[in-house]
Amino acid sequence: MLRYSQNITQGKGLVIIGETNLSEGFGYPLQLTYTNLIICIEGSALLNVNFKNYLLNPNDILVLSEDDVSIVKRISNDFRSFYCLIDKAMAEEVAYHLPNELFLFLHQHPLCKTPELEADLLKMWITQLQYIKKTCTTHGHIILRNHLQNLFLRMAEEMPVAEIKKMHSYSQKEVLCWKFWELVGKYGTEKRNVAFYADQLNITPFYLSQITKNFFNDSPKGLIDRQVILEIKALLKTTDLAIKEIADRLDFKDTSYMARYFKKLTGVTLTEYRK
């Protein structure tokens, strides 16, 4: 039986990669980070995710979040998998340009089957990820983010139309959460008051807080701030706009307020981040 000394929870960084046969977590809930990819290389494994069983075969991708209850129930003697653990900061950047429907789809269907004709492409994607992690420094962060986005966008391409239509039959709380997130995407750069979104949804701020905590594991204010910070980062990285111009574009009353806001939520100054 193959054995790997690397534990799936070991290591530090925005993205942690490695190989494991999952034997360390056999029979126990896996200790996961914010977003997790487990890609079967060979053999098979049976995992129970949120009380549903999923059989992981070669080239299958299991997408897990930190609040998923994931237990390894059975592994074949030759099971081997590649894992990619993505911390919250990087996951937020990766998710920034992804369709909202994808997150709801993956929440309901965490096991993704790679089309047979694309099995070699998936192996190449893993090899490229390993190369990026090992060699890219100056622009490694952006290259890594884009590489991860490409995989998730490919997953979005494979979402069945019938499943997307089924989203309309989800509970009222789920519908409200996704409507809220769509509103944040539309107004987040100019409206940072939770009450505004609650009014748009015809619910109270307290109720909005309850449902986002249950469904997104975050507060409405935290989700709004996340979107604003990602927008600021994008403008700092991809444009030559002066700080004052960014503050004006994002409806901050002045640059000093935006600077304090950014430093409080990221731990670095606007200038440090741009450098």
From TrEMBL:
Start and end residues of each HTH araC/xylS-type domain: 178-275
Gene3D superfamilies per UniProt: Homeodomain-like
Starting at the broadest rank, the lineage of the source organism is: Bacteria, Pseudomonadati, Bacteroidota, Flavobacteriia, Flavobacteriales
Tell me which InterPro entries the record gives.
Answer: Homeodomain-like_sf (IPR009057), HTH-like (IPR037923), HTH_AraC (IPR018060)
Q: Which SMART domains match?
A: HTH_ARAC
**Can you name this protein?**
AraC family transcriptional regulator
One GO molecular-function annotation for this sequence?
sequence-specific DNA binding
Entry-linked PROSITE patterns: HTH_ARAC_FAMILY_2 (PS01124)
Keyword Disulfide bond in annotation: no
Sorted alphabetically, the keyword list is: DNA-binding, Transcription, Transcription regulation
Organism per entry: Chryseobacterium pennae
